[in-house]
Task: structure prediction
Amino acid sequence: MDYLYLFKQILKETKTNSMSLKKIQHDKDKLNQIVTDARRNQELRDQSYRGQALKLYPWICGRCTREFTHTNLTELTVHHKNHNHDDNPSDGSNWELLCLYCHDNEHSRYEETRFGNSQSNRTTTTIATHNPFADLKNLLVSKK
Ligand SMILES: [Zn+2]
Ligand SMILES: [Zn+2]
Result:
């Protein structure tokens, strides 16, 4: 057995490993940087179109007409009419100010029309046709 050769091999491997580890760490840092940048850009963009929309429109929810002031302005959100958050024309034609609740509603309605399945339709029909007094009436009739 050539111990010197073996020793050299181990040394070489250790070196390679520590080098690739460093490279992985470097790539990870780079990836983190990219993610951080993207997130910051997204935040900046969100802030800028929200700021623009708040300047353009009165602080009123477009659905329930609730009015907003500086104290509760965080509950007023910017909705994208065509549901494309990247579509931000500076004239505000794609924006609508909605309170958190109406905004939520707007999106669930949109999801329903987009992914509308028979399940949700059936649920709606059941609720619409169900008469809570029907049973009561039967109960009263049978008691007589
Ligand atoms: Zn509202
Ligand atoms: Zn929206």
In short: Residues 20-117 form a domain with the His-Me finger endonuclease fold fold (CATH 3.40.1800).
